[in-house]
Amino acid sequence: MWLDEIFERFVQQSPVTVMVRAIMEVVLTDEKLDELFEKTAQTGYTRELLFSTLVKMMIQVVCSVRQSIGSVYKAMSAEIGVSKTAVYDKLNRLEPCVSRALVQSTAIDLTTIIEQLGVELPELLPGYRVKILALQWSGSHRASSVSVASHQSRTPPRKILSCA
């Protein structure tokens, strides 16, 4: 394949990046995301703006590819096909049950992948599933972001969710 040489260079220089991308492409397919929205949304509907498009936009902000939904919109406006106002309206009306279902579905898919790889982490508290949350405080003395870190991480947790 003509891409083998290029792909191999990325595998050698940054194998984790390649693995994460491959996993994201399997777990977050447009079909799965849109099907999840259709099954879960109680009042939300799809006309022109698909849930998968919103997820793609949010991933760019969360992964610091772009600084805001507005900058993502500017870069993807032809692909999105609706007004910026329609994007913000859809985001503002996104039901919590849809977000919950996305997290649950992704967790199930990733757990399956981890189990297939045979990866086992030592238990922090035998018999309990442990998640570590780190709160980062802003100058206004309220949580400005929530981070999740593995107990094995040697680096500070990365920001994953900003709270208003």
What does this structure look like?
- The structure is a single chain.
- The chain has helices spanning 4-13, 15-27, 30-40, 51-62, 69-80, 84-92, 96-117; strands at 132-137, 143-149, 159-162.
- With 164 residues, the protein is mainly α.
- It folds into two domains: 4-120, no CATH class; 123-164, no CATH class.
- A three-stranded antiparallel beta sheet has the order 1-2-3, with no helix packed on it.
- Mean pLDDT is 79; it is low at 138-164.
The tally of strands reads 3
Number of domains: 2
Q: Secondary-structure element sequence?
A: HHHHHHHEEE
Percent of sequence in beta strands: 5-15%
Largest beta-sheet details: 3 strands, antiparallel
The CA-CA distance between the termini, in Å, is 48 Å
User: What's the gyration radius in Å?
Assistant: 18 Å
Assign a percent range to the helix content: 40-55%
Order of strands side by side in the largest beta sheet? Answer: 1-2-3
Return the structural class.
mainly alpha
User: What is the residue-averaged pLDDT?
Assistant: 79
Q: Categorize the overall geometry.
A: globular
Q: Give the low-pLDDT segments.
A: 138-164
Q: Please, how many helices? A: 7
